Amino acid sequence: MTVADRLPPTTATVAAAAAGVDTSTGTTAEAVALLADRPLVVLTGAGLSTDSGIPDYRGPGSPARTPMTYQEFVSGPLAQQRYWARSHLGWGRMRRAEPNAGHRALARIAPELLITQNVDGLHERVGTPRLVALHGRIADVVCLGCRRTTGRTALHARLAAANPGFTERHAEVTVNPDGDVDLEDTAGFVVPGCESCGGVLKPDVVFFGENVPAARVERCYAAVERLADAGGALLAAGSSLTVMSGLRFVRRAVRCGVAVVIVNRGATRGDPLATVKLEAGCSEFLTALDSARLDARAS
Ligand SMILES: [Zn+2]
Asked: Are the C-beta atoms of 272 and 23 separated by less than 8 Å?
């Protein structure tokens, strides 16, 4: 039996993250000092994009929510209609999101590898080098029939043309970090198929219940392992580390003797493993870290 990397969060972990307890084990100064002058691998999650207006549905105060699983998506046309109707509205908002100070600081810091769990494409937009989008990008679409990948902008235009007035009728919905929205009434939404083979189109992202492609995971493990000899550190920023797809890199770092700093608002599953855990916003912390690294290089 294979266990998928991404399983939906349990109610208990969501509740713990929402409890608002300060779980810090160090100060900003200590965390910055630890990371200022060494090679870094950085893992980012939804908390990095909240300052871009994309809500973090696992962060403190967020409503509990269960995203569609891969198994549900492939179960048939009704699930796909439900997915695409909601995602169509979500994409209309998400594509207008702009990178924030945290994204820009990380692009300047230019870690040995930036691993992001976010599918919003905002790290890409600021030209971050050496980037792995662990869960893919919501801007890409894959055909489950012929595996051809296409751009979301083209599909968005096809969806809009096939469903006139749909977006206008649902202008008030809330967008989630995976590009989904809270909407129940999706009957009648028309979902076009692949233009090459007529197959089922899926956003090219790793759904809950799906595994991250092995080559992608190996590239990340290798970068984390190289930190051991280089005296480097792993920084996890804005991720609750609820799913194994991110937590495993923290575990690998610890096994290799690599220091781990976790910056997040709310408890994370990695807290017991962290060298320093900081309750802080990503934009402020990363901006401070970027300045400290510039100073360290200049001295
Ligand atoms: Zn196809």
From this structure: no
